[in-house]
Specification:
By secondary structure, this protein is mostly helical. Among the domains are: 3-51, no CATH class; 60-105. The chain has helices at residues 8-13, 15-26, 31-38, 42-51, 53-81, 88-105, 121-138, 149-153, 159-164. Helix 2 runs antiparallel to helix 3 and helix 2 (15-26) packs across helix 5 (53-81).
């Protein structure tokens, strides 16, 4: 492994950038994205990620506790503002964001997908029945008569097949 990919030189030469990288790793941002934003090699980011597991867990715990506190504060602020309705939307949105962040850092699900699709077969059948009845009512009656074939041609109908051969 090349010496440039361990992160030791980055930490020595650019300690602030190194701290930013560790913070971004703790937030769950991918190596390529971190590399783009900090102008660092993604392989270096990967090595820092592997080496800093303990530090990253400590930072996640710190972020988790901060997120929880901020979620509670924003929710309390939104509750206080309900009567005045002054910046209520902003406080509510911030509370939701911090709650979501806290849940994500705590390993909880932050998205809920629910599909509720019910088919009312009785209702559909009734609708189709009504449409059929309406169609039948709109149709004009047709008067028809069944006529014997021998009455149409003026002959008995038996001779036609004999003449065809």
């Amino acid at each position: 492994m090349p010496i440039g990919c361990t992160g030791y030189q980055l930490k020595a030469r650019y300690p602030e950038r190194y701290k930013v990288i560790v913070r971004m790793i703790s937030l769950g941002i991918g190596d390529k994205e971190i590399g783009k934003q900090t102008r660092s090699d993604p392989d270096t980011i990967k090595q820092i990620r592997l080496r800093q597991v303990r530090d990253i867990e400590a930072q996640r715990e710190e972020m988790r506790s901060r997120s929880y506190v901020n979620a509670v504060l924003c929710t309390e602020k939104a509750t206080e503002m309900v009567d005045g309705a002054r910046n209520l939307t902003e406080a509510s949105v911030a509370g939701g964001i911090w709650t979501d962040k806290w849940m994500a850092l705590s390993g909880m699900s932050t998205a809920s997908i629910s599909v509720e699709h019910r088919i009312d077969f009785e209702g559909l059948f009734e609708k189709l029945k009504k449409e059929a009845e309406e169609t039948m009512r709109k149709m004009k009656p047709v008067r028809a008569e069944v006529v014997e074939p021998r009455l149409l041609g003026g002959g008995d109908g038996a001779g036609e097949g004999a003449n065809a051969s």
